Amino acid sequence: MLELTDIDAFYGNSRALQNVNLTVGAGEFLSILGRNGVGKTTLMRSILGLMDRVTGRLTLDGTDISKLRTYQRAKAGIAYVPQGRGILPRFTVRENLTLGTFAARDPNGIEDWVIELFPVLKEFFNRHGGNLSGGQQQQLAIARALLAQPKLILLDEPTEGIQPNIVEQIEAVIVRLNRERGITVILVEQNVAFARRASDRFAFLEKGRVVAKGAIGELSDELIQRHMAV
Ligand SMILES: Nc1ncnc2c1ncn2[C@@H]1O[C@H](COP(=O)(O)OP(=O)(O)OP(=O)(O)O)[C@@H](O)[C@H]1O
Ligand SMILES: [Mg+2]
């Protein structure tokens, strides 16, 4: 469904991704792993069209999307939950959610099934996003992304810095989105145990390059040691 061919990505003149080749099939779950600063977020931003410059080819369901603007990619079915969540602190929960609906191809307001995934959001509908806990903001960010009706969701370290009981809930929801709703997932994750449980495939980045990839069953401790240990 998504295919990256010979992708290079730049911040100004500095090349942050080099010769990245990756594919994700419809309904698949791909985890992107690697140490800090290797280009994981840059890869997400490249898929969304948020970089200064990207070369190479990016196709979604066979259509070249590499010239499309970010909002057009969103309409085409790609949603993003950014690292750090990207909640608008002075907007209410409802307003943050409404922003997500603007990217929907077939706008349908704040759909019940999304709120049912995260009941806490309903309680806090009129609260400012900035007044939610980190875990609640993460839930809000995921809900907002789902309201854009994505076929592909990009999740950048969704459990980073969140208290363990909420991490479990968030992980369970991510797995359900993939298995029950058939949403294709690309997850950036430091938690290898979760990546192993949830994913079909993995890819390791190092210095902006894909240095290992395969079926999740091939994710050996040796690979983790080599590409993740600090
Ligand atoms: N806005 C920017 N301008 C210039 N260089 C940047 C910018 N953002 C990131 N970089 C550089 O690009 C490289 C990849 O950064 P990126 O944020 O993609 O890494 P990451 O794997 O997501 O790291 P982390 O695990 O810390 O989130 C790093 O060398 C970083 O310093
Ligand atoms: Mg990052």
Describe the structure.
The protein has a single domain, classed as Rossmann fold (3-Layer(aba) Sandwich). α3 packs parallel to α6. It is an alpha/beta fold and 230 residues long. The strands form 2 sheets. The protein has a 6-stranded mixed beta sheet with strand order 6-7-8-3-9-10, sandwiched between helices. 34% of the residues lie in helices and 27% in strands. Bound molecules: adenosine-5'-triphosphate (ATP) and magnesium ion. Magnesium ion (MG) binds next to α1. The site of magnesium ion (MG) has 4 residues, from α1.
In short:
The chain has 230 residues and is α/β, with parallel strands linked by helices. The protein has helices at 40-48, 70-75, 93-101, 112-117, 119-123, 134-146, 164-179, 192-198, 221-228, and strands spanning 2-11, 14-24, 29-33, 53-60, 63-64, 78-81, 152-156, 184-188, 201-206, 209-215. It has a single domain (2-228), classed as 3-Layer(aba) Sandwich (Rossmann fold), CATH 3.40.50.
Task: Give the topology.
Elements: E1 2-11, E2 14-24, E3 29-33, H1 40-48, E4 53-60, E5 63-64, H2 70-75, E6 78-81, H3 93-101, H4 112-117, H5 119-123, H6 134-146, E7 152-156, H7 164-179, E8 184-188, H8 192-198, E9 201-206, E10 209-215, H9 221-228
Parallel strand pairs: 3-8, 3-9, 6-7, 7-8
Antiparallel strand pairs: 1-2, 1-4, 4-5, 9-10
Helix pairs in contact: 3-6
The structure holds adenosine-5'-triphosphate and magnesium ion.
Features:
alpha/beta; Rossmann fold; 6-stranded mixed beta sheet; 4-stranded antiparallel beta sheet; 9 helices; binds magnesium ion
The proportion of strand residues reads 25-35%
Count of DSSP-assigned helices? 9
Distance between the termini: 34 Å
Order of helices and strands: EEEHEEHEHHHHEHEHEEH
The CATH superfamily is P-loop containing nucleotide triphosphate hydrolases
General form = globular
Q: Would you count the extended β strands for me?
A: 10
- Give the number of domains: 1
Low-confidence runs of at least 5 consecutive residues? none
